[in-house]
Structures are given as C-alpha cells and as structure tokens.
Amino acid sequence: MEGRKGTIFTVFSTAYAVGKTLIAINIAAELAHQGRKVCLVDLDLQFGDLCYYLKLSPKLTIADAQRAMKNNPNDVSVVEYLTTWKKGNVQFEVLANPRLMEEAYNMEVDVIRNLVQQLQLEFDYVIIDTTSTFSALNLAMMDLSTIINFVGIVDFIPTIKNMKRGSDTLKELGYDDSKIRYILNRSNAKTRIDVQDVESILGKHFDYVLPNDFQAAQNSVRNGIPLVIDARHTSLAKELASIVEVYDQSDGGKKPEKEENQGGWLSRLFS
Q1: DSSP letters along 42-91, please?
Q2: Is the pLDDT of residue 197 over 80?
Q3: Which fold has domain 7-260?
Q4: What's the rounded Cα separation, in Å, for the pair 153 and 184?
Q5: What is the model's pTM?
Q6: Helical pair 157-172 and 195-202, crossing angle rounded to 10 deg
Q7: Which of 25, 109, 132, 271: CA 20 to 30 A from 219?
Q8: What is the arithmetic mean of pLDDT over 98-108?
C-alpha cells in the first residue's frame, strides 16, 4: 500500500491481568487529546474488553469487516466498520473484536494485517491491544509495529518468570531493542519483590513505571472514560500520558542508555 503510514503501537504482555487494555486505551486517548487522528484496535479476539471499558455498543466489528473483504476484496473500506468514542473535543475510533466466539476462531491473520495496514493510511496512530501469547497474529502485528509496549507487574515470581521468557523471546525473534518499551504497572503494590531485582533478571530497565491506583482505574472503567481525559490530576494518569510524551518520531523512538544494576536475591534465582 502506498501513501503516508501512521505509527503503530502494540501493547503486549506474557501475563494476564497486567493492565494492557487500560494502558492501550489511555495511549489512544492521550494521542487524541493532543489532536492526533487515532484508531484503537481490539485484537483480543475472543475476550477483548475495549468496548466494555469504553461503554461502547458497536454495530459492526472486525468480523464484519472480514466477511465484507471476503465477498468484495477490492471494495472494502475499514473505516466503515469503526465505532467512535467521544467526550468533549476528544475522540478516537475503535475497531471492535468479534461478538461471537465462532467469529473469533474464524478470523484470519492475513485479513487482519490488511485491515491494520488500511488503518495506517487513514490514521496518525493505530493502537493495538493484544492477547498474552506469542500467536501468529500477535507476531504479525509486532512486525508491523513502530513500538511494542511490553507490560509486566511484579506481584509474584511466576509472573516475573513469564516476563523474562517474553523478553528473551522478543530478542530471539530479532526485534530491535529500540523498538521495545518496557512498562511496569502497579509498581507500588504491596509486594516484597524489589523492582531493581526484576530489572536485573530482565537485563532491562523499565522505560515507564506506573503507580498502583486501583480506585482511579476502577472509576475509569466504571465511567467509561480514560484516566488521561477525566482524571488527569492523578499520578497514574500523568504517568500514562508520559508514555506518549517521551516518544519522539524524530529520533526513531531511540531509548536513552542506562546502566545495568546487579540485582539481589531474586535475580540469583534466575541466574
């Protein structure tokens, strides 16, 4: 496809319940707040929550777009299958996940890739919420992505183990480290695990550290309004907004170099 191509942010994790969807929503909302043309895509095809979080009732979904593309492959515009979220002067579009499990099972990677590439030509930014697996679909989206936002939490050791495996797998798959942003969510939740230990295990420093604010997050989901729009004064909203602010297309999104720390007892468990 020819023409201007928008930036793709993929939000990914190797663990469940780490806040991927909330982060994806707020990245989209912050970019829209800055006046960018944004589309948010729910590629958790079976259990996606974007529309639930945003209190949207889409008439059409990505499954409808796939059916149309199969019937008329050269005459389908993906923008016809989007649902608008709007509050005040801020709005962005959402490509919803399928309504039915059967539809989710029958989605095809090549079709979804084509639809996302269409969105690239229509929007400044395309934000993709994914499942927590190295599936063919997720890898196809990572290949297209400008930035992969890799999300983790430090609640207990198995989660850290999955995070380490995920980080290593991204490296083994050949993704340039400058393409990956490491996000620690719920950083000050009650745990005896030290963040520096986790960084030592990963061999990476977290690019963004999001504070634990369960009440603000819960209110956001209950009201269907992203934190960066309705609760910008909170520490969590400010840190979520920083994910957008520090990204600079002029330098290709290159991350500053940081010294590696040696870690403590936990890092030795993984050595």
Answers
A1: E--TTT--HHHHHT---SS-HHHHHHHHHHSTTS--GGGG-EEEEETTEE
A2: no
A3: Rossmann fold (3.40.50)
A4: 6
A5: 0.88
A6: 30
A7: 132
A8: 96
